[in-house]
User: Fold these one by one.
Assistant:
Number 1:
Amino acid sequence: MTIVSKRIFPALTVQVLPTPVVLLYCWSVLSLTTNFLKKFVDMWVMNLQEIKRVIVSQREEMEEKFRGGVIVKREPEISRLKSFLAFPNILVVLGIRRCGKSIFSWQIFKNSLFGYINFDDERLYGIKAGDLDLVLQAFYELYGNIDCVVLDEPQNVIGWELFVNRLRRTKKVVVTGSNSKLLSGELATHLTGRYVSFTLMPFSFREYLGYKRLIVSKEDFYSTQKVAELKRSLVEYMKVGGLPEAYLFGREILVRIYGDIVEKDILRRAKIKRKETFRELTKYLISNVALEFTIRKLSNLLEVKDVHTVRNWLSALENSYLFFILERYSPKLKQQVIAPKKIYC
């Protein structure tokens, strides 16, 4: 016979039980505990393995672009940008969706061993700030001890700023984002004076010629054939624009990129309530590029009573790099504020 304490086994209502019953009870508790721990560990390992699969898949995709695609040397001087990565600074690369930020960040660390992950991936949906240590562990297990890390679109993870703030103390970190608000809020609070931001624009005409592998020399401007070829290239560039994917898939891809910017980068994140009215605003602005406008006129046109709402919408469009607003020059600040403005896409 075995004496069993109620404090240890509160579910037992008797104090004296046969040894086999006690052993059976203990075995049940131990089995449940073991199964719980196993499921917890399996879940943790599964998440780590899934993250590793995503990292490897994304790297293979990027490496394929470098092998099979045309990689253009961008006009910003990479060596100068790399100097900003001296510990403990972070380099933040901003720009419109699909302008080549990921490729550019790879060019920065071209001859280095680095970890890369793009959080704008449905396989990483639901990842939390507490899981970011698993990302770092995945890098270590895949590549060993790395000194450089590229985090693509990390704003999809709430609370990512604290992780980056810790990471920058021992690593060279490049962060890319499609919204200038990436530099506001928590990032600005934790990293004041510890990051350098840089805006990557779509291809310039010079970069477009590089993509088309058209080499231009001074002598070419005296050649009728070369001048005609340059004019044709300029007309095509002005029609298609500077987003690299448009040269591969045609202008149709621009519609999808535009939709992603409006739906994912603005409506979803800014939590705009009057979604249809906002879509009408973007269509109107695209149809009236380079024409003058005032916020009051836009407000009346859209039947939005509060002009501050329209002003906030315009700010969201600027933050996503879809539009740029140009103010009329005046030495008087008041005149700049009240004068009509122009918008460019």
Number 2:
Amino acid sequence: MDHSSWLVPAGGLVLFAMRLLPWRQLFRAKVTPPEPSVWPRVTVIVPARNEEAHLPRLLSSLAVLDYPDYEVIVIDDRSTDGTAAIAATFDRVKVVAGVDRPEHRRWGGKQWACHQGAAVATGDILLFTDADTEHYPDSVRRAVAQLLSSGAGLLSALPYHANPSLWEQLLGPFQLLIIALTAPFAPPRPRRLFVIGQYLMFRREAYLAIGGHEAVAGDFAEDLPLANLMVASGHLIHVYRGPNLFSVRMYASITEFVRGWRRNFRSGFIYASPLAGLWATWMIIGITGGMRADLGGLVVMGLGGLFIAWRQRALGRFRLIGAWLWPLSIGLFTWATLLAISDLVLRRDMVWKGRAYGAGGR
């Protein structure tokens, strides 16, 4: 047997494991920073376009937050369903009817909605969150305490993935690969930034200093461009360490996943390290054992499956079936990534939430 033939897959698996070993302890750490003498007012801003299916769960969770001073603003982004009516049934929620985007400048729909929400917010802390999230009662208290104690201008957090459907179990290996590539708890720097648009908590003064969502009006997505502006302007970014703040169901179908990944890939491409593609390829070779059918390849592949089964449990309600079917997950990731690359190369327009965006994102 030529043992050297599986050294490359083995090396890829070791790299994958090393990138994931430290974060689980940080993710689950019992971090208890000192509480401030006076809790700053928080404004939770929810951009919502045709979100009647998600809003009841989100707004019910926000209604019972264990925080002394906060408001919730829902921006109805020209919805054609019952989004505004549902939001209006919650006493604590202020519903703002979004207006059409300015014709003289191209705005992304989410950026424009968030911009309108920030304009009427009264909080010293601005939390932008998505309609498909659900927040734990003490989450804002814990997040604000860490934001203030860290000295950061922006805090983001990893979600807990609630995955009741069978196909969503395939997303466990995909989520692990993304975390291995992005290293969320490493010190942020250009081309190594990690934030999640589902949870962006800003100090108000830092948000205004970078120009807010207006500064990234025409980008495909807002999270990484905002983070890049924060770092460029000297503000610290902090990724929350400790038990989960919120849960999410990101993609209800494979079609939604592929569409969402194509959008996120296009937005994040310019902020990725030039080596990201190489690392991803090497780690996939490691997880798959180089697709070799000999003993060495099968051993590496088996170890990869066991490691995925162990690590994915920290991310959400992922079951063993997802680890057993991880080749399908990697195949789905590869297929969606190739589609995203073809979008970039062919400069295809993108359609998101029923709106078309040009190839340049603007």
Number 3:
Amino acid sequence: MTPRDELVIARAQQARRQHQLVEHYLFDDAHERLDATAALTAKALGFPFAQINILDEFYLHTIARHRFGGLDTMPRDQTMCQFTIEMPNRILAVGDLQADPRFNHLEGVVEGVVRSYVGVALTGREGERVGTLCVFDSDVRTIDATQLEWITQFGVIVEDQLERVRRATERQIGDTVATASLSAGIENGEIVPWYQPVVDLDTGHTVAYEALARWIRPDNEVEDPRRFLPLAEDSDLVLDLDHAILRQALADLRTFRVARPDLRVNVNISTRHLEIDGGAAALHQIVRAAEIPPDAVNLELTETRSLYVGNQVIAAVAELRGHGFGVVLDDFGSGWSSLDRLLYLDITGFKIDQAVTAALGTPVADALARGLAVLANDLNLDTTIEGVTTQQQRELAKSFGCRAAQGYLWTHPIPASVIG
């Protein structure tokens, strides 16, 4: 085999691998949250248009957008994203494309549709670049370091959302092997809680720990939760996983409360527990068996997008509240949590989504965070803002009236042994 033959084969293999990587993102029509993230990105960077794109060997496929009604599919080599995905530092920013000989031949630039552009490459599960998040304008723009930082942060959020899309698509075509492995992992006690502190913004003290599921493989490798949580959420395994995390979190809380009797624990539970007969009672029984008072436990409701607020769900939440549990809406303000949850469910608080946090410092995100904090105060609800990574975000959240926060500013999720 000649070197030329080897090169042809290598290119064919790369093209096939790229196609396999991106095809999972193209068959899911539930991109509401991606649209919301695209809109927040545009607002944060002060650009009128934003897109989330997936690139295969030949084409760019737009799967989410803000305010731009262009083609869903177009030749990859006629797009700025073709260059972005190949940038060593993942980011491409150009204030005047018509003045740059690298790009002034592109169709959109020639026609004046795109004059300025900021984009970040998106990385898929296997480390391959699969797409871009970009903002653009038909006018010349000055681009600063803050805008580059924001688009990088939003890129991480989009990568997380795309991983969920990919997992959902895999489940649609059948993922029985992974499901069996996950079931065995739960049964064998391999999936355990790690903890991230919830911090009172007035005192700076930790008032609770959120229990976050981590899969510790037999070789001690920590499985990325984005790889197994969506799989659980699409099956009844999520009920078993939630119960397992709750039991272990209660055991850990008993240890934590030796030094801090007032400490609480936040545990994520699927809304599916509310939709089945006996779901709320089963949660209460686990807590009662652990001899932990229910008022030391906040149950954070996940998967609220698909939740139908009917009599069964209303009664289940009321039952939990009657026992003393806190009931919290997760990811509020992201477009997936609806206001009807506030109208009909007896909740004790909500958590402001990290997509809002990432855009703090911009007029739209500041107004949204301030409005949510005022709403919570008027309804006597607790607010926790998620994804805080900087002192500026912390100070802004506090000034808007948010009561608590969590994020990498304090620590990433850690095992119970580090806390105890």
Number 4:
Amino acid sequence: MKMNRTRILKYSILTLLILAGSLLSFLFYKIHRIEKDLENLRISNFHIHADNPKLSLIKGELLSDKILIRGLLEKDSLYISTSSLIIEGLDILPFLVNKEILVNKIKIDSPTITVQALNSNSTKKRFVKQQKIKEVHIKHLELSQGKFFRTSLNKDTILTAKYQILLSNTSFNPSIQSFPIPKEYKIEMEHIEFEPDPLNKIRIPSIQMDTLKWSLSAFHLIPKFNKTQYSRQLTNQKDRIELKTDTIVIHHPEFAKEPNSIWKSSFVEINQLHTDIYRDKTLPPDLSYRPMISKMLRTLPITLDIDSLQVKKGSITYGELLKHKDKAGEIAITNLDLNISRLNNTFKDTMNIEFTGSFMDQGQLYIHSKIPVWNTNDYFITNIYLNDFDTKRLDAFTSKNLQVRNTGFLQHAVFQISGNENNATGTVVMSYKDLQIRVMNKEGSKEKKLWSTIANTLIRKENKNLKQQAFEVTRNKTKSYFNYMWLCVQKGLITSMIY
């Protein structure tokens, strides 16, 4: 009996040893297969090549000297190269059983990412799906000393950046071509430069992004050509815009791509936004349709929802060059503050815009607009107030563009305007004194006294009774919303000042 027990125990131990050996052999075989697969791995539309990958089952660790990844996105090709890859806390069992990858930490050193646009007319070659990964879960992902390049179809570089990225609790399905959204993240980028179009480039010295806010320093939109050369690139009139800021801070950002692209923020603040706009009116006008602000928001390709947007200490300079003129006439608004609330295309809210500034460094300008974005008639209400303005300061614009010099003092002006995409009605109340104009020759050096006399007989020299007068304007749909507002102000001025 004792011998039988001993024999049974021996057989049991032998069986366990055989099973353990078989299991270890199976695991080592699988590890060897995984290491071999990593040397030439294809998952969905991605081809991964690893140099000398080493997988440790005991440590749950994967090391590789170099990783190369080629892939196809929806509209782009992707190429990634790294100098080293370290994966810690790799749980091998879920992968063997259920094709799920569970990782505690991935550290990638010096990754270079290149994204190139694909020709939309070409047939996209898709890689064969050889490995089916159901889900990937990464607790910590770190990319250090990275570089990013975006190239066009002809391989011109249109975006460059250096970056550091920390992501936490990221999950995604490799078979679904969507951007994985981590629960927590920290991204630092430096020396960002890209070309949004052939005529302009954008520079951003640094971007810092985390779950609570995104911060951009010294955002700068720069035309690639000076004003004269810029005009030579155009066939029709188009604004040349240079724009720069001190900082842009986006608070509590939320973004998602599936099922619809959506972008949210509780508060966006832009500090010291300086904008220089120049238009060469010697070129033929662009007669294409220009939508209203509300329609532009409704037709955005993304869902937008910003509770509040604020611009502090900004400025705007606008210049126009007319035929037979050497210099552009300019108008300027300084000390600009802008507040926009309920900037969205999601809900039936009314967007409110409040704008204050110094007009030509003197007149106090205040604008308040209400725009119900959801209204398909593009309805709006705008009130414009201008106080304490010496009209002589308009000479910087009118002397060059209209051959007119001004004298007089505007004490108070109120324009109340309401309308839609087609037409607008409004009222104007003005108080001014000592208004007089001088009509100049083309060179601006000599007054045309006869024309000045005729013009001044048509203009009220003063208006102190604050009488409200009405006007109507028909919109030119080939012009912008801001041109529409200027036509309303212009009509209001004529209505109030001309006998």
